[in-house]
Amino acid sequence: MTAADALSAAVDALTAAGCETPRLDAELLIADALGVSRADLAMDPELPVSGRAARLIGERVRRRVAREPVAYILGVKGFRRLMLRVDGRVLIPRPETELLVEVALELPAGSRVHDVGTGSGAVALALIDERPDLVVTASDASASAVEVARANGLDAVVHRSLPAGEYDMVVANLPYVREDEWEGLAPEIRLWEPREALVGGVDGLDAIRSLIAQAPVGLRLALEHAPAQTEAIRELLRSPRVHSDLAGLPRVTVGDPRV
User: Fold this and answer.
1) Is the backbone of residue 178 left (phi > 0), alpha (psi -120 to 50) or beta?
2) Listed residue (228, 234, 179, 241) closest to 212, CA to CA
3) Is 170 helix (H, G, I), strand (E, B) or coil?
4) CB-based burial, 204-218: b 16+ in 10 Å, e otherwise
5) Tens of pLDDT along 25-46?
6) How far apart are CA 223 and CA 64, in angstroms?
7) Strand 135-139 to 157-158 pairing
């Protein structure tokens, strides 16, 4: 078997399974199994596939056919300049969450930032990587998520919601999916990612309201949310400022808790 043979078979299987990006998924799974880059696959389609590699590719394709996310299969996901360990205990970091990082990067030198609902530690670790002058801590209500964040090298993380302390900004990607949206989500999300990290009650804002209620007056909050929740979030904050993601959709709102 050659890499081209494996790729062709994998693309066919993933296409039949309804995967949105079958060729990209197949290339990622096969390249990693062979220990080469995607560019190597393109340049050398006749690359031989050993029996061991073929079995690994077959196992990975079967998992992807069951709609398990590629990031969980490979055990890693890129986020900004980092490669993070991820598994079913945490959400897969998404591009729109980078906006939380961008907002916090604007803080003055030496600012204290706390990342609530850190999950894999993506936001906190990106800030530590790009702004070592910041004092960055994190927390998560899930003890399992804290384990993953620590495995990614985030030592300043605790199993809590919002720990007591003085911060210049709290950033948060909390659950904000509405209950009635759950069944309509893609299988990759609904079948594999932790529901408790996604669903935020009837209107999706339960966790966000809880955080705002805990936050002291004057604390700057940066909250990720769905575009349709923008006005509701604005009503919960004083002097809200809305930031749009790369698609031009309102995604992060910054403001102080209302008294």
Assistant:
1) beta
2) 234
3) strand
4) bbbbbbbbbeebeee
5) 999 999 999 999 999 999 999 9
6) 32
7) parallel
